[in-house]
From TrEMBL:
Keywords: Calcium, Hydrolase, Signal. One of its GO terms (molecular function) is hydrolase activity. Residues 220-707 form the Glycosyl hydrolase family domain. Residues 1-20 form the signal peptide. Monomer. It comes from the Bacteria. This is GH92 family glycosyl hydrolase. The keyword Calcium applies. It comes from Mucilaginibacter ximonensis. The lineage of its organism: Bacteria, Pseudomonadati, Bacteroidota, Sphingobacteriia, Sphingobacteriales.
Length: 734
């Protein structure tokens, strides 16, 4: 009997192990090569790193069609802006031929936590795996001699030093600050030859190279390495990196859908963890915003393009990791305290005031009204208010106000210039970015609305009144006789323009067709300007149907960011992401369901061409994650989600609180994309939206899907999501 029990127990354990093995890790669906060829602009890069950590490494090549690698940076300091220290194993009897040698790769393994390829005609093997502030390369040369490690400086200057037979150090100057590395090898090396900005280090046949980066000193880099990779167990570091990624990938589980859809979904989720990155080095960090070194046990996050990320990336992490998202907000507030201005694009080397709008306001208000309160709202508000009233609103600027800002404050719009009229304001970037006058007005109207609601939270009635008044400035640039957002000159006259062809003189990276719909805080008011809900719906239909009016190459000459075109709709740029969901406000949610499925199926595929525009480090792929799950945060600052069309038959979000949010759509398919009916926790859900509170409290939404639209579901005016700024800012009720 005892033997029987023992055998039964063994069989039970084996069966349990077999079931565990059968469960495929979500990480296995991630393919970092997706989007590796840019449709018009930049491709994605197969970045190897830990989620939201400093070390980011990838093979540098033109794009995924390029069969030669130039080098591997020891880290990306700032997404698509700055990389630091080149590294490359090379072989050859003539060292002079190795300085700029690019290497063919014939075999490659790409994952978020591990990289492997065979380089050059020799087939030298390179492997890499990351830690937080450190990384680990393993090199296996095919030949016994004439092997080198090539290290180089990529930016303004620096040096690389062979400290002893198993230690290298280096420093590099970039954008007014300095980076350092400390590296060790597990075999003896010798410096064969040095050249300006580069060094060839003679290497044995097999060598491991581990290193750490610091923005403080070489000594701190050494401490970082000793803290993170004290030994030489490559597989242990790799396993730790795998587990870190497996944890975040396991937070959302999907069922149903195709293999391609799962690959797109989880690859998109992986890209949502590239930035921001924590540069706190085990108790201290260097800030370019003072500049100074600070003792701190709190993370200090940098590298954020807020114009791109406030829309969906921030809201996604407010669900998945609200603690870290608040730490990122706290980093912004600290930067304001250190530097005097609330950052726009908070990069490692300081504020990079790209694009338009004061969107840190929308990001922080969104967090606050979703119940994320672990940041100093008073100081945040102080910085945001200062940026709105005292800083310039001009694109690609951050600093004191100009004469154009004085005009904006007085008249409620940014004045544009007629074609051919010379620019007279020195702060305007005259060659390419220009004034973007309409976009400046529209985006700051929205930012100011969120600042006004923060003022209400802080019991500042005069400020509240001021900013809510400024939030209506969008009305000053809507031209009713044309039905478009339109530029005015300084005298209040409409400027002659083509709404399809108008570029950065008036709009940011898009034309009037896109910017007609960016009044995210007051869709009701916008629709009234357009003549009511029905006329607004017809105008939205036309957005997806209107032709370009010219050849694509001519259109893209002034609108290179307008990729992923469907009519005049631009899938490849962030200001368009919320637009397909606007049918929910117009009484036609079925059209949102139709458009979203079409856009996902058309523009987000599981191949090299699978992303329609600049991915922007999670700015675009967060749209994919939300939309494939079946909902989207249309207006940052209003804690509700618009319902689209769930791609998968089941989505489960394991919330940090231990609660679970589940979406069931058991018969969802390519044909069955239309919602027939829905329930929320067993209660009929007849409106195309739900609240953040309902989500984070743990809930289950059941959708009955069908192949034909149910045009009555969610169609009543009372079913529309909240969008009236006149009521919302007064009540803050959802």
């Amino acid at each position: 009997m005892r033997n029987f029990k023992a055998v039964f127990a063994c069989l039970l354990l084996l069966g349990t192990a077999a079931i565990a093995q059968q469960k495929k890790s979500n990480l296995s669906y991630v393919d970092p090569s997706i989007g590796g060829v840019g449709l018009i602009l930049e491709p994605t890069r197969p970045t190897v790193q830990l989620p939201n950590q400093l070390i980011r490494v990838f093979p540098v090549r033109h794009d995924a069609l390029d069969d030669q690698i130039s080098y591997f940076p020891l880290t990306v300091a700032s997404h698509r802006v700055v990389s630091l220290f080149s590294f490359m194993p090379v072989s050859g009897a003539n060292p002079d031929a190795l300085w700029d040698k690019r290497q063919v790769y014939n075999y490659e393994v790409l994952t978020p936590y591990y990289y492997k390829s065979e380089l050059g005609d020799e087939g030298n093997l390179i492997e890499f795996t990351p830690s937080q502030k450190s990384g680990f390369f393993k090199i296996s040369f095919k030949k016994n001699a004439s092997n080198y490690l090539r290290l180089g400086i990529l930016n303004e200057g620096g040096e690389i030093t062979l400290a002893d037979k198993r230690t290298l150090t280096g420093s590099e100057i970039f954008h007014g600050m300095k980076a350092y590395f400390y590296a060790e090898t597990d075999a003896d090396i010798s410096e064969a030859i040095s050249k300006t900005r580069n060094a060839l280090i003679k290497s044995p046949k097999n060598i491991s190279f581990k290193y750490a980066i610091s923005y403080i000193s070489i000594e701190q880099a050494k401490e970082n390495l000793q803290a993170e990779i004290p030994g030489w167990d490559f597989n242990k570091v790799k396993a730790t990196a795998y587990n870190a990624w497996n944890k975040v990938m396991s937070q959302i589980n999907v069922e149903g859908g195709t293999l391609a859809q799962k690959r797109v979904f989880y690859t998109s989720l992986y890209r949502c963890y590239e930035r921001m990155v924590d540069i706190n080095e085990h108790g201290k960090y260097y800030s370019a915003y003072d500049p100074a070194i600070h003792e701190s046990n709190r993370p200090f996050f940098v590298d954020n393009w807020i114009w791109d990320t406030y829309i969906a990336l921030g809201p996604l992490h407010m669900i998945l990791d609200p603690v870290t998202e608040q730490q990122k907000i706290n980093s912004y507030i600290t930067m304001y305290q250190q530097g005097g201005w609330m950052p726009s694009f908070a990069l490692i080397f300081g504020d990079w005031p790209a694009m338009t709008g004061n969107h840190a306001a929308s990001w922080m208000a969104d967090a606050w009204f979703k119940g994320l309160r672990n940041f100093d709202l008073k100081t945040a508000y102080e910085g945001l208010r200062k940026n709105s009233l005292e800083a310039t609103l001009l694109p690609w600027n951050n600093g004191p106000a100009t004469v154009l800002d004085s005009f904006y404050n007085k008249h409620g719009y940014m004045p544009g210039l007629h074609y051919g009229e010379p620019e007279t304001v020195p702060q305007v970037e005259k060659v390419w970015e220009k004034r973007q006058a309409v976009s400046v007005t529209l985006e700051n109207s929205y930012s100011d609305w969120n600042i006004g609601r923060m003022a209400a939270e802080l019991n500042k009635p005069d400020d509240e009144k001021l900013f809510i008044s400024r939030s209506k400035n969008y009305q000053n640039v809507f031209r009713k006789d044309k039905g478009f957002m339109w530029p005015k000159d300084k005298d209040g006259n409409w400027i002659d323009m083509d709404p399809k062809a108008a570029g950065r003189e008036f709009f940011t990276e898009n034309n009037a067709y896109t910017y007609n719909w960016v009044v995210k805080h007051d869709f009701k008011g916008l629709f009234n300007l357009m003549g009511g809900r029905e006329k607004a719906e017809a105008k939205l239909d036309n957005l997806f149907r209107e032709d370009l009016g010219t050849a694509k190459f001519i259109f893209w000459k002034t609108q290179p960011d307008a990729s992923g075109l469907v009519g005049q709709f631009v899938m490849g740029n962030e200001p368009s992401f919320h637009i397909p969901y606007l049918y929910n406000y117009m009484g036609a949610p079925w059209k949102t369901q139709k458009r979203i499925r079409m856009l996902l199926n058309t523009w987000y595929t599981d191949n090299l061409f699978g992303i329609p525009g600049d991915e922007d480090g999670g700015g675009m792929t967060s749209f994919v994650v939300f939309s494939m799950m079946g909902f989207f945060p249309v207006t940052a600052g209003i804690p509700v989600y618009n319902i689209g069309s769930p791609v998968f038959t089941k989505v489960t979000i394991n919330l940090p609180s231990g609660k679970v949010f589940t979406i069931n759509a058991p018969n969802s398919s390519a044909d069955n994309k239309y919602i027939q009916s829905a329930t929320l926790n067993g209660i009929p859900l007849n409106k195309p939206w739900f609240t953040h509170t309902e989500l984070v409290n743990g809930a289950t939404i059941n959708f009955k899907m069908g192949s034909r639209p149910n045009k009555s579901w969610g169609a009543a005016p009372s079913d529309a999501p909240p969008s009236d700024c006149n009521n919302l800012y007064l009540n803050n009720k959802w």
